[in-house]
Amino acid sequence: MKQENIILDKSFTFAVRIVKLYKHLSDEKKEYVLSKQLLRSGTSIGANINEAQAGQSKADFIAKMSIASKEARESKYWIDLLVEADYMNNEDNYVQSLIKDIEEIIKLLTSIVKSSQGNR
Questions:
Q1: With bands split at pLDDT 50, 70 and 90, how would you rate the model's confidence at 15?
Q2: Contact of 37 with 14, CB cutoff 8 Å
Q3: Residue 120 pLDDT exceeds 90
Q4: 74 occurs within a structural domain
Q5: Structural domain of residue 98, as residue ranges?
Q6: CA angle 78, 70, 101 (to 5 degrees)
Q7: In this prediction, what percent of the chain has a pLDDT beyond 90?
Q8: Residue 118 belongs to some domain of the structure
Q9: What is the mean pLDDT of residues 17-40?
Q10: Is residue 27 part of a domain?
Q11: Environment class of residue 97 by beta-carbon count within 10 Å: exposed (0-12), middle (13-18) or buried (19+)?
Q12: Dihedral sign from CA coordinates of 10, 11, 16, 22
């Protein structure tokens, strides 16, 4: 049986949502610049978390998870900017759940990095 890894699962699900959001923003809103930045950072989170799982050392694991954390914070920035620039509506349930998801991912990654640094 495959072991559940909450941060891997959440980051993958978030990446899928970001890809779909990018398609929507580029097709429907004709917005290409900010959404491309969000696509890069939003899909990079899970990629770095996956790389961290195969880290050669504790330091390598922490470095990859720290990058994932930075990418998550960048993703939050692009989402906030897209909302403020009126490409997305903050009242929309989808947008609210996206923000909730990225904030949860940021908290999880912050906790993982801090506890890993403490366990060195």
A1: very high
A2: no
A3: no
A4: yes
A5: 6-111
A6: 60
A7: 93
A8: no
A9: 97
A10: yes
A11: exposed
A12: positive
CB-based contact 48:67 (threshold 8 Å): yes
pLDDT tens-digit map of 50-98: 999 998 999 999 999 999 999 999 999 999 999 999 999 999 999 999 9
Q: Give a yes or no: residue 20 inside a domain.
A: yes
Please state whether the predicted TM-score (pTM) of the whole model is above 0.70. Answer: yes
118, HSE (Cβ side, Cα atoms, 13 Å): 6
Q: What is the CATH number of the domain that holds 101?
A: 1.20.1440.60
Q: Which residue pairs from 14-23 have beta carbons closer than 8 angstroms and sit at least 24 positions apart in sequence? A: 14/42, 14/45, 14/46, 14/75, 14/101, 14/102, 14/105, 15/42, 15/43, 15/45, 15/46, 17/42, 17/98, 17/101, 18/42, 18/43, 18/75, 19/43, 21/98
How many structural domains compose the chain? 1
**In this structure, what DSSP letter does residue 2 have?**
P
How high does pLDDT run on average in the chain?
95
